[in-house]
Design brief:
6-stranded antiparallel beta sheet; Transferase(Phosphotransferase), domain 1; 3-stranded antiparallel beta sheet; single chain; Phosphorylase Kinase, domain 1; 8 helices; globular; disordered N terminus
Length: 341
């Protein structure tokens, strides 16, 4: 049996409060990644707790600047609580691993990569990390900005599809965040409506925030500011991500780069325009989104979306900047065609 280190985050993060920023994050997090077979789940040998009680949560916050407010939600990997800064009075989201995953080094490592990636990106379209430490009893604690609004998935559940102008605006914001991540050598690997949050700011238009870098891949040598790659290796051929939005190379279990994120966002854009996915029904060729859109969207936007979701990575946009430029051109064409004669 593999001997597990006492510190769940390994040598990259010791049980202390090593850094803090004055920025502030999210509520939605889902990590469907199966644990590699060669790792033994020692937590199965003892009863599972799904998260700390109110009393133990306060214990986790002893000696910190935060106090517990309420439980916010849960996902497959962790739980989120609302906490308040004792001096500033500002509320944040506290993300914790579920207790039965504390003995699994892969999950704690992914939480570390997620926190470091989002904190170092410091981008308005990426959820902001505020604080990170290990509690005395081994809980990795991540404090993030508290978002208000709902995910793009929830938006589409209610509205089914969006007007082309609104869909393009959200896609451009997501591309801005992805461009920053890719420049740092971070590939998200799970871009989907559930991980795109429409943050409501009073008096301003909703701002899209990219959530959950828990499945991120760190490309070696891309940037000296990139987080350290995950130290627990992923099983060769493991499939990471959500099938409906996954690039073909990711579905084959191959190593992916930034172009996999652009494919996933292309699928998200298709869904925003049509209310359905490009591969929801078998077809010899992917039908253009204009076939299902509730309004005329133009041939140029059709072409942009179809190139973004091309099967071969070489046939897609090779950067978020190129995708942004093409999408901006389609938006201008759409605006021009809508003007009265």
């Amino acid at each position: 049996m593999r001997t597990l280190a006492r510190n769940p985050l390994g040598p990259n993060l010791m049980p202390r409060r090593p850094w803090r920023s004055n920025r502030t994050a999210s509520v939605d997090f889902r990590h469907p990644t199966p644990l590699p077979d060669r790792y033994v789940n020692v937590a199965k040998e003892r009863p599972k707790r799904m998260g700390p009680s109110a009393e133990s949560l306060e214990g986790l916050l002893v000696g910190t600047d935060y106090r517990a407010v309420r439980r916010l939600g849960k996902g497959g990997m962790g739980e989120v609580y609302v906490v308040e800064h004792r001096i500033m009075g500002r509320q944040f989201a506290l993300k914790l691993l579920r207790s039965h995953l504390l003995a699994e080094p892969q999950f704690a490592e992914r939480l570390r990569v997620e926190a470091q990636a989002a904190a170092r990106l410091n981008h308005p379209n990426i959820v902001e990390m505020v604080d990170l430490w290990i509690s005395p009893d081994g809980y990795p604690c991540v404090v993030m900005e508290l978002l208000r609004g709902r995910t793009l998935s929830q938006e589409l559940e209610e509205r089914r599809s969006l007007p082309a102008s609104e869909a393009i605006a959200f896609a451009l914001q997501a591309l801005s965040g992805l461009a920053a991540a890719h420049a740092l050598g971070v590939v998200h690997r799970d871009v989907k409506p559930e991980n795109l949050f429409l943050h409501e700011v009073p008096g301003f238009a909703r701002k899209l925030k990219i959530l959950d870098f828990g499945l991120a891949r760190i490309l070696p040598g891309a940037s000296r500011l990139a987080p350290d790659p995950i130290t627990v290796p992923t099983k060769t051929g493991a499939i990471l991500g959500s099938p409906r939005f996954m690039s073909p190379e990711a579905a084959r279990g191959e190593r992916v780069d930034h172009r996999a994120d652009l494919f996933s966002l292309g699928v998200v854009l298709y869904v925003m325009l049509t209310g359905r996915g490009p591969h929801d029904r078998p077809a010899l060729r992917v039908p253009p989104p204009s076939m299902f859109a509730s309004e005329a969207i133009g041939a140029q936007l059709d072409a942009v979306v179809l190139r973004a979701i091309a099967e071969r990575a070489e046939d897609r946009y090779q950067s978020a900047a190129a995708f942004t430029e093409a999408l901006g051109g389609a938006s201008r064409e759409l605006s021009t065609s809508s003007l009265p004669c």
